[in-house]
Amino acid sequence: MLRDPVIAILLLAGVAEVLAGDPLVDWLVLVLTAAALGWDRIRRRRPPDGEAVAVARAGQGWVGRLVPARLSPALVVGGLVYVTVAGRLDPFSWPALVAVAAPGLVGVSSAWQARSTPPAQAAPIHAGGAAAWAALFVVLALWELSALLLQPSITMGSPLHPTISVLLDPALGSQLGRSVGFAVWLALGWLLVRR
Amino acid sequence: MSSRAVTIAGYLLIVGCGVALELASRRPGSPIPSFGALLGRVMSTRSGRVGVMTGWLWLGVHFLAR
Predict the structure, then answer these.
(1) The dihedral of CA A176, A181, A182, A188: what is its sign?
(2) Domain encompassing residue B9
(3) How confident is the model at residue A25 (pLDDT cuts 50, 70, 90)?
(4) What is the pLDDT of residue B66?
(5) In the prediction, which pLDDT does A41 show?
(6) Which of A174, B22, B29, B59 has the fewest Cβ atoms surrounding its Cβ within 10 A?
(7) B42 and B21, same structural domain?
(8) Are B43 and B23 in a shared domain?
(9) For position A141, what pLDDT does the model report?
(10) What is the chain B residue with the closest CA to A187?
(11) How far B1 CA lies from chain A's nearest CA (Å)?
């Protein structure tokens, strides 16, 4: 199961969240997904290469029944209402968590339900070039970790050694900032779900 | 240079390296894939697709729901 790098990365990130003292939901999302993928892998008894999916019809990506294939005016208006309302919700509250969980679970479910096709259809990537990107993300993770460890305590942010969360706190402190944050996050999810 | 400035400079340097990799990927015959191509390859498997979307969900939970 751990031979699948995605499962290993999710578990590692989940353990890091626990050690960093982050809230239960933060690491539960990662660990539960890793467990679900592991269960699915055992159930299928097939190597990960056999799970390549179609980039089906041009422009539609792997969008499933849960997510509309096209950006309609109604969807844009719905998105604007969502980011306006969500930005007004109190941070650290259950309503804010529900506002994230609802579209988030739809996105993850759509990813899970995508149709599978033979691996030959997946575009090849040069291993060395991919390693350069991987190295960049590892460096980012280590830099974030060093900032975290240089804090006065693992759960107390430091202005001298700011993590990304500490740097974003002022921007996400206002209703407008949170609405913009929700809009960027939702747009990113839309772009990913369309791939 | 303060510790804060060094930390932020580190983040900016990493972002700069990411931009440089993206620009390098656009040269003809470059062995470096664009970030979009890399993401597409990762998301060509169920575990990769679900992993990326879970990362997106985690970003929302971590930065917006707390």
Answers:
(1) positive
(2) 1-32
(3) confident
(4) 67
(5) 87
(6) B29
(7) no
(8) no
(9) 93
(10) B56
(11) 11
Name every chain A residue with its beta carbon within 8 A of the beta carbon of B54: 10, 29-30, 33, 108
**Number of domains chain B contains:** 2
CA distance B65 to B58: 10
Q: What is the mean pLDDT of chain A?
A: 84
Q: Which amino acid is present at B56?
A: W
B28 and B4 within one domain: yes
Q: Residue B30 is which amino acid?
A: S
Residue of B nearest to A88 (CA): B64
Q: What does each C-alpha distance from A48 to A2, A115, A118, A170, A194 come to in angstroms?
A: 11, 14, 11, 41, 22
- Do residues B41 and B25 share a domain? no
Chain A closest CA to B49's CA: distance in Å?
Answer: 6
Q: Calculate how close chain A gets to B22, using CA atoms only, in Å.
A: 9
Report the distance separating Cα A90 and Cα A184, nearest Å.
Answer: 18
Secondary structure (3-state) at A54: coil
Reading the block at residue B12, the tokens are 């900016």
**pLDDT tens for each residue of A131-172:** 999 999 999 999 999 998 998 888 788 889 999 999 999 999
Give the per-residue pLDDT at A54: 46
Q: How many CB atoms lie within 10 A of CB A20?
A: 18
